[in-house]
Amino acid sequence: MTTYYRDPDVLITSSGVRMNGHEFRLPELIRVWYTKGARSWGVIAWRGALGLAILLPLLAGGFAVLVALAMDASFTTTLTWVLAGALLGLAVVPVADLLLERVDLSYDRGSRNLEIWGRVREGDVLLLRTNDAQRFGRVYRALQRALEPAVRR
């Protein structure tokens, strides 16, 4: 028996599938497909907020430098404004990596629910629902690999 995928909730082997509390032998699955749910606008707004958190110090620093160069002030005042603007713009560097990592994780998880459905003699069965896009891809590919030999028979 070959194991294609295993985690605490899903087991896909060359003999059968266990998902969402259902267990099926591979020949019982007549058809398998997936659906995508509606986008989660909260996730998309969160990504936008993270992007804005990265850009705001840069924009504020650039604006401070522009104000310093545009105002008619002494050299010392202008230099102070330029240095303050540069420091404000550089303030984003330490946190940018953390924020960009959060954005990456957000894309890994996805912005919508993904579902794997199967058709058996009794009707259509929801096999898996997740918003984790990476996990969904791994499970769906494993299911396809497990079903390939069954189709060729």
What does this structure look like?
With 153 residues, the chain is of the alpha+beta class. The chain folds into 2 domains: 80 residues, PH-domain like; 68 residues. The protein contains 4 helices and 7 strands; from the N terminus they run E-E-E-E-E-H-H-H-E-E-H. The strands form 2 sheets. Strands 1-2-3-4 form a 4-stranded antiparallel beta sheet, covered by helices on one side. Strand 2 and strand 3 form a beta hairpin. Helix 1 packs antiparallel against helix 2. The two termini are 17 Å apart.
In short:
With 153 residues, the protein is of the alpha+beta class. The chain contains four helices and seven strands, in the order βββββαααββα. It has two domains: 3-40 and 111-152, PH-domain like; 41-108.
